[in-house]
Structure formats: structure tokens, C-alpha cells
Design brief:
Belongs to the pseudouridine-5'-phosphate glycosidase family. It contains 13 helices and 13 strands. By secondary structure, the protein is an alpha/beta fold. A hairpin with a 2-residue loop joins β10 and β11 (192-198). The protein is globular. The chain binds pseudouridine-5'-monophosphate and manganese (II) ion.
């Protein structure tokens, strides 16, 4: 595991020292994934959802080159509101630190930093993955290779439906990343409840997810992530017809405007938010809040197992 120079927020430091449950949260969804001014309000709501379920939120990001686990409200506000916040994947962390940048961490960077800080559970919206056209563009999110080597449980609503979901699942298999559905054997597609692919495994409760984490420790699994795929209920998903139309126009705009690289995901998310007149934003927020709640419950169950005298 990488040794990052990390500043811990006070509350997070206390919780980790005492073995209390902590949930890592990413900042890219705040700075690049959600539109202003909703993003700051939602960032605070995500933290509150973690607290309501009994865990301590640790939102991760970089402020003036300092890598922080557990941003305080002023730091969170800065990443949500100032211009020029960089989107930081793992490879960017050192460069951004050395140049004193403000940056928001992706799933990849958040996972790596959280694991290094000793946090075992992380909540996000949707993972990055293999992009459509990846056979030509080679565009595959660093989220995948990072999860192959990082011991963390990521609660997400599958991968964003803007991706090639089947190819992403194949890559996760190759990379040895465990995938379990939460109360489902169908892989969710972020805005959509069901992305159209079966899963081999599911867990039925936060306690069972904690059992999986405990079994990994017992088996000496010190690298490799666990994806807990938590779908939206069908009646809360984005209307599939609206979704498909919006995706088609978004992909056409990508090609027309020549958008590539790390700009692709923020571009498509922003297109969804404007083209659906806020419908996708409401769905996106629901996804993240539900995942924060589930991640906190898993962290609570996991902490209880670690502190309980063994039977
Ligand atoms: N999930 C969301 N909104 C987002 C992202 C995920 O609901 O903005 C971000 C995450 O930070 C993820 C990143 O790691 O998109 C993937 O970007 P890329 O495809 O460039 O790797
Ligand atoms: Mn990419």
C-alpha cells in the first residue's frame, strides 16, 4: 500500500483511534459530478446520512496541496465552490501535492487514500469503468485497476450507465475485484435499477457484508476491493426511455465536441443534469444518499464485530 502524507480531520482521527465506524467519501462527485449550487448542499447531506446511520464521515480531498481525510466544512465549501479544482486520480496525487493544488479525489484516489488511512468502507454514486468505444480509445477508468490492489469495500449503484457495463464487469473479474449485489443478483446501472447483467453473489444485510469483510481478513486478503452494488428501487430510477434518449444525445455531443480523457465523465453527467431538467440530478442524489446510509451500516456492523469478544 502506498504511504501517503495525510492530514486527518480531528473527528476522523479520534474515531479511527477508538475503532469507531468511519466511512470514506469522495470529492469528485462534489466538484465535478454535481452542478453548483446543489453540490455543496448534497455534500453536506451525504455526510449527514453517514452520521444518521451511526458512523463518522471522512470526505477526502486536497486543499492547497494537503491531502485531507475528513475535510472540515470550510474545506468542503472550497472544493465545492472555487474554480480550478483539479480532478485527481491516483497518478495525480503527488503532482498536485507538490504544486500546491486544490483537488477532488475520484473513486480511485479516494480508495487508495482511505485504505492508507485505515478506513475499510467507502460510499460513492457510481464507479468509473470501461467506456463505450474503449476498443478504439483505450478509455478505461483507473478506478478499476486501483480497486484491484486496494483493500476497501465500495458501496455504489454499479457503474455509470454511460459506460460499457458488460466490458466493465469482465475487467473486474480479470482484475480479481469481488462484486456482490445488495439484496439482488442483478448488476445495477447507476441511474437505472438493472443494467442487464447477472451477478454470482449477493448479500442480504449490512451484517452479511461485514461477514464478507471479516472473511477476507481471515483469509489474509490484503489487496483487492469489494464492490457492494446497491440498486435504486425500480420506482426511483430515471425513466429508462428518457435515460436512453439522453445518453444518445450525450454520446453524439461528445463526438461532435471532441471531448476525451478525464473530461468525458463530468461532461456526460452535466449533459444528463441539464437535458433531463434536473430529473437525473434528483436520482443521482438519491443514489448517493442511499449508498452513504448502507456504507455506514456496513461500517457499524464491521466495527461491532471487531470490538465484540469472539464467540
Ligand atoms: N459517480 C458519480 N459522479 C461522479 C463520479 C462517480 O455519481 O462524478 C466520478 C467518480 O469520482 C469516478 C469518476 O471515480 O467519476 C470516474 O471518472 P473517469 O471515468 O474519468 O475515471
Ligand atoms: Mn477515462
Amino acid at each position: 500500500m502506498t504511504n501517503f502524507h495525510i492530514s486527518l480531520g480531528t473527528e476522523v482521527a479520534d474515531a479511527l483511534r477508538d475503532g469507531r465506524p468511519v466511512v470514506a467519501l469522495e470529492s469528485t462527485i462534489v466538484s465535478h459530478g454535481l452542478p453548483r449550487p446543489d453540490n455543496l448542499r448534497v455534500a453536506r447531506e451525504i455526510e449527514q446520512a453517514v452520521r444518521d446511520a451511526g458512523a463518522v464521515p471522512a470526505t477526502i480531498g486536497m486543499v492547497a496541496g494537503e491531502l485531507i481525510v475528513g475535510l472540515d466544512d470550510a474545506q468542503l465549501t472550497r472544493l465545492a465552490t472555487v474554480d480550478g479544482v483539479s480532478k485527481l486520480s491516483v497518478r495525480d496525487l503527488a503532482v498536485a501535492a507538490a504544486t500546491g493544488a486544490d483537488g477532488a479525489t475520484t473513486v480511485a484516489a479516494t480508495s487508495a487514500v482511505a485504505a492508507a488511512a485505515g478506513i475499510g468502507v467507502f460510499a460513492t454514486g457510481g464507479l468509473g469503468g470501461v467506456h463505450r468505444e474503449a476498443a478504439q480509445t483505450f478509455d478505461e477508468s483507473a478506478d478499476l485497476v486501483t480497486l484491484a490492489r486496494t483493500p476497501i469495500a465500495v458501496v455504489c449503484a454499479g457503474v455509470k450507465s454511460i459506460l460499457d457495463v458488460g466490458a466493465t464487469l469482465e475487467r473486474l473479474e480479470t482484475l480479481g475485484v469481488s462484486v456482490v449485489g445488495y439484496r439482488t443478483r442483478r448488476f445495477p446501472g447507476f441511474y437505472l435499477t438493472d443494467a442487464g447483467f447477472d451477478l454470482d453473489w449477493s448479500v442480504e444485510s449490512p451484517e452479511q457484508a461485514a461477514d464478507v469483510l471479516a472473511a477476507r481478513r481471515d483469509q489474509g486478503v490484503h489487496h483487492g476491493g469489494l464492490i457492494v452494488a446497491n440498486p435504486l428501487p425500480v420506482d426511483e430510477q430515471l425513466d429508462p426511455a428518457l435515460h436512453d434518449r439522453t445518453l444518445a444525445t450525450g454520446l453524439a455531443m461528445l463526438a461532435r465536441d471532441g471531448v476525451t480523457g478525464k473530461a468525458v465523465t463530468p461532461f456526460l453527467l452535466a449533459h444528463f443534469h441539464s437535458a433531463t431538467e434536473g430529473a437525473s440530478l434528483a436520482v443521482n442524489v438519491r443514489i448517493i444518499l442511499r449508498n452513504a446510509d448502507l456504507a455506514a451500516r456496513i461500517a457499524v456492523a464491521s466495527a461491532a464485530r471487531r470490538t465484540a469478544p469472539s464467540a
